[in-house]
UniProtKB/TrEMBL annotation:
Any single Pfam family the record assigns to this protein: p450
Name of the featured protein: Fatty acid hydroperoxide lyase, chloroplastic-like
Keywords: Iron, Metal-binding
InterPro entries in the record: Cyt_P450, Cyt_P450_E_grp-IV, Cyt_P450_sf
UniProt-listed PANTHER family: CYTOCHROME P450 26, INACTIVE LINOLENATE HYDROPEROXIDE LYASE-RELATED
Coiled coil (UniProt feature): none
Species whose genome carries this gene: Coffea arabica (Arabian coffee)
Chain intervals for the UniProt region annotation (Disordered): 1-34
Chain intervals with Low complexity compositional bias: 1-33
């Protein structure tokens, strides 16, 4: 492990596993003396139950209210329900799940002794493998599959090697992003942050993850991020609430899977680009990890497009919005002061090492992830019969049953987080804040955990939080403040 990587991993806060807060959830598989209770809730009549739940989920209630109402009705954070997609064209999909909506019951999703994760990234339904080169890529594999070990190690190696160019590449691509935003501001007084942000993420992440530089291809450089947007959108539509006029959304977006051929041309362009420009990473996949060239290319594209670009696009938007005065008045001044005091305004001083000093910036990043986990739903299937423990009861789970956790609610568990609905920028500072990191789960594992081939935690767990901290530090080196409202920047005040 390079010195830089070692220091970067050291920068991941909260590696202590001590947990002294009163309501510490215990390790799931420990025997419990709590009463065994029948899992409340029901799946309803065949066809009708799943359809009714689907309409509530997408239309009448929306995901958060859907789960909240069922907690109230069942007087339990563990219950049976259906989740989409369902009838009419998802007949072979079983929508029955057991929802786990508090920190303690949700933690069972990380215990690979009792759950398995084959093909359950987005639930019982899985998008066609045509979207991923006719193969199951890493995120769909269970830890018991040898290929998962090879691919997880490959993904962590990719990140480790890229750490040498990560910060430099990021800052240089941020120069372009902020120049575009400033140009928009001078022309029209407002800049929608999404296009420049996505362009930045695509260019930066493509170089760091695949080694291919989009600037070698004018077409990929200009349109690469839009190709990924459509590829992502089309495969995930049956599971995502979009918010267009109903019942049009139910009829056209949630009733069937869009065929891959609609995005095939764009995807093939990205494959060709990686094959031609990402040769070093491909050769490493073949020689050091015993993968085929095809496996390497499609896994690189999935990591780039789905894991990294998809995750960061949602996360950075939430991060920028959380800086708005309407959400967190006065926070920019506090973050700026910390950045200027600890690092100053010289961008060459930005490093993973330097970010370790920014306690409030990192806490702000964690709090944004707590309230806006970019991957809100997590699933896992019972590997065997086992007993699932919540705070007041134990439930018997049968082998093969699917558990479903909705993180935006789990991360508001009042037994763990004080004032759980409030955005508290400093929540994760000091000793108590460090302990709370044991219960921050955005990466499919605790923030104090470590991704490995024997678990399904995000390979980039530390890179994601440090990259977000770097993004904020860079911003407050450039600007005294930005004015932001609903995803649009309307002013920036340059640093003096
Ligand atoms: C904000 C950005 C990101 C978020 C929110 C995110 C989130 C997640 C989550 C929740 C999972 C687990 C999904 C599940 O099994 O239920 C996951 C898995 C994974 N992520 Fe990330 N991720 C992000 C960025 C990245 C990046 C930059 C990479 C690497 C290049 C990456 C690589 C992976 C891989 C390889 C897996 C599969 C792990 C396994 O199969 O064991 N992610 N990510």
């Amino acid at each position: 492990m390079s010195a830089m990587m070692a220091s970067m991993m050291g920068a991941s806060p909260g590696t202590s596993s001590s947990s002294s807060i009163a309501s510490t959830p215990s390790i799931p598989s420990q025997p419990s003396s709590l009463p065994v209770r029948k899992i409340p809730g029901s799946y309803g009549w065949p066809l009708l139950g799943p359809i009714s739940d689907r309409l509530d989920y997408f239309w009448f209630q929306g995901p958060e209210t859907f789960f909240k109402k069922r907690i109230e009705k069942n007087k339990s954070t563990v219950f049976r329900t259906n989740v989409p997609p369902t009838f009419p064209f998802f007949l072979d999909v079983n929508p029955n799940v057991i929802a786990v909506l508090d920190v303690k019951s949700f933690s069972h999703l990380f215990d690979m002794e009792i759950v398995e994760k084959a093909n359950v990234l987005v639930g019982d339904w899985m998008p066609s493998t045509k979207y991923t080169g006719d193969m199951r890529v890493c995120a769909y594999l269970d830890t018991s599959e040898a290929k998962h070990t090879q691919l997880k190690k490959f993904s962590m190696d990719i990140l480790k090697r890229s750490s040498a160019i990560w910060v430099k590449t990021m800052v240089s691509k941020l120069d372009t992003m902020w120049a575009t935003i400033e140009s928009d501001l001078s022309k029209s007084g407002s800049s929608n942050i999404i296009p420049p942000l996505q362009q930045f993420l695509f260019n930066f992440l493509t170089i760091c993850i695949t080694g291919a530089d989009p600037s070698t291809s004018p077409e990929i450089s200009k349109a690469g991020f839009a190709l990924i947007d459509t590829w992502l959108g089309l495969q995930l539509l049956p599971t995502v609430k979009v918010g267009i006029l109903q019942p049009l959304e139910e009829i056209f977006l949630h009733s069937f899977q869009y065929p891959f051929w609609l995005v095939q041309g764009g995807y093939n362009k990205l494959v060709k680009f990686i094959e031609e420009e990402g040769t070093e990473a491909i050769q490493r996949g073949e020689k050091e990890f015993n993968l085929t060239a095809k496996e390497t290319v499609h896994n690189l594209l999935f990591m780039l497009g789905f894991n990294a670009y998809g995750g960061f696009s949602l996360f950075f938007l939430a991060l920028v919005n959380a800086l708005g005065d309407d959400q967190n008045p006065g926070i920019q001044e506090k973050l700026r002061n910390e950045v200027r005091e600890k690092i100053g305004t010289d961008s060459s001083k930005l490093s993973f090492e330097a970010i370790k000093e920014l306690e409030l910036v990192q806490s702000f990043v964690y709090e944004t992830l707590r309230l806006n986990p970019p991957v809100p739903l997590q699933y896992a299937r019972a590997r065997k019969d086992f007993k699932l423990t919540s705070y007041d009861s134990v439930y018997e789970i049968k082998k093969g049953e699917l558990l479903c956790g909705y993180q935006p609610l789990v991360m508001k568990d009042s037994k763990v987080f004080d004032n759980p609905e409030n955005f508290e920028p400093g929540r994760f500072t000091e000793e108590k804040g460090q302990e709370l990191l044991n219960y921050l789960f955005w990466s499919n594992g605790p923030q104090t955990g470590s991704p490995s081939e024997s678990n399904k935690q995000c390979a980039a767990k530390d890179y994601v939080t440090l990259t977000a901290s770097l993004f904020l530090a860079d911003m407050f080196q450039r600007y005294d403040s930005i004015t932001i409202s609903s995803g649009s920047i309307t002013a920036v005040k340059n640093a003096n």
